[in-house]
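Students often ask why we bother encoding 3D structure as a string. The short answer is that it lets us treat folding as translation between two languages. Here is a chain of 722 residues written in the first language.
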Amino acid sequence: MTAATHSSVSPADADAADAVLLGLDPEQREVATTLRGPVCVLAGAGTGKTRAITHRIAYGVRSGLLMPASVLAVTFTNRAAGEMRGRLRTLGAGGVQARTFHSAALRQLQYFWPRAVGGELPRLLERKIQFVAEAGARCRIRLDRNELRDVTGEIEWAKVTQTVPADYPAAALKAGREAPRDLAEIAQIYGTYEQLKRDRGMIDFEDVLLLTVGVLQDRHDIAEQIRAQYQHFVVDEYQDVSPLQQRLLELWLGDRDSLCVVGDASQTIYSFTGATPDHLLDFRTRYPQATVVKLVRDYRSTPQVVHLANGLLGQARGRAADHRLELVSQREPGPDPVYAEYPDEPAEAEGVAGRVRDLIAAGVPAGEIAVLYRINAQSEGYEQALADAGVPYQLRGAERFFERAEVQKAVLALRGSARSGGSDDPLLQDVVELGSQVRAVLSSTGWTTEPPAGSGAVRDQWESLAALVRLAEDFARSRPGVTLADLVVELDERRAAQHAPTVQGVTLASLHAAKGLEWDAVFLVGLTDGMMPITYAKTDEQVEEERRLLYVGVTRARHHLTLSWALSRAPGGRASRRPSRFLNGLRPGSAALGSRPGGPEAGAARKRGRRGPALCRVCGRTLTEAGEIKLMRCEDCPSDMDEGLYERLRDWRAGQSKLQGMPAYCVFTDKTLMAIAEAAPAEAGQLSMISGVGGRKLERYGADVLAICAGQEPAGADPDDA
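And here it is in the second language, the structure alphabet:
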């Protein structure tokens, strides 16, 4: 303990500290007030673990028991670290360091490298995949795109488990790794990759941890200096710690035990990267005197969602399952989870998009809805279906908000206007209200009151600027009288904390990318055996990790939860798929799951069921990809599209987009227009068979489209616009 730990606490300090405890439940309060010795917090999904640990740190700081600069809080993502910094700042503990393992290690390495090694720290390799590709070429091993990604993952796994190239084959065999190439070939590529980095004076992210560990092991004077700085440690998501990260944590700690770890073994979903829950599960063995607190009150999800989550884990096996937490919902009852079965994947995407549209119409914000899938390759069908339904969406995994070029340009413009006080800015003359000022300034950087037609980069840039406008409006509502200069300070603080505003739109994300997030409504899609669990999950432990991944997906939902699957991949395909085995005993019955006879899903199923296999109309091959099915031809087969018809359809779509005040892709996507121009339908039945032309769009636009295809002017067209 530091000397500050034994300092006296004045009544005023005690009052300020006690205020931090208000609103905590008994278990969270125990976490917050237990500041001595090792503490292990077993926290289920939605139980307020971040709230508990940030209030713990703030309580220690405000009571004088912890010095802010002596605390290091470590988590696994920049987003989580930014959120923690923001909360600590709000609670009056802004001097506490909250960082990822890599960020904390890199800071220390940069500071001590000249003293420990000499010279400047080697440059950091941001993306290692190019180096891996070059290493493969030097070894005369050709890697396709997927193999390149997977071999890179194997190298990362080897490094975080502290496995050198020569030992990789034996270590991978022992760990049961599903390697993408021969183990000896990967070891050869791994060794060449390491040599390339050395030759060019570069290090990668795993090297940051390895080198920091090496410095702390070899230089006791440096290790002691770091230990004198940081005397209290908090580690979030402790179930995801790798052996290398655990070793670094042990070196930071030394022989002390002022450590608080937080985790949930049932949310271990990154073992393929080297993460293991063993450190969490063995914590009481290493520290027999540890205080253990269980957080099981779920504040996120309804009893119906929690019941399903508990049911999933109730069937689990293995060591993590032995330590599962039984969650207890603290929310009012909500709707039962919906189970939906579809004949094929396009029908599933179309059905989900329809449900999403209905939720938005019922008042659920698009930004509070997520569609989650097992692998990223599943996203295309849902992107297309949502676009066809006129629903905005965003893909998770894009660059950080404040690093986007349009955001940096916008903040620069806002800063310039704030410095001038608006006196020299013609955009701000006679504009007083903050939101109006921001809209005026951002109009010079590309923001408009209406979104641009279509999707892609232009729409993404507009969404970024629109998010800044919404942030300014919210900021003005929460703090009346604020100025443009106050907003710029707020943006700077958010950028430092990586606390970005929300870009509105339905979230499309993989289950892994959804970890740590939550929405009012969640759609878990593609839940068939072979996808969930994934087909390459062979061992019992691999299958159990897949179950935990589904558990993570279920617990992202606050209120609405839909689970769906398709019996075949393509329309007319053999219905040979089965719902995920994880749902056995949980879904109600085995027929017409989640669908009412005669309901919209059943109607979609009947419509799809009448179709035969989707065959390329050029070469006759069976089509499986969503884009190819829409065009009814292989992507590389020659197109017989009428270019003039296509351009007339595009012009008509632009007019409809402007008339209705919606993006062009909400009328018809480019692929749908291309399919229409290739088919040149002569009557409504032919038009309805084109993917992307549903019943509603046929009713609204069918007459116009058929007229254009017939070389006529659509009904209601203004001759002056022709």
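Translate back mentally: The first helix runs from residue 11 to 21. Keep this in mind for the problem set.
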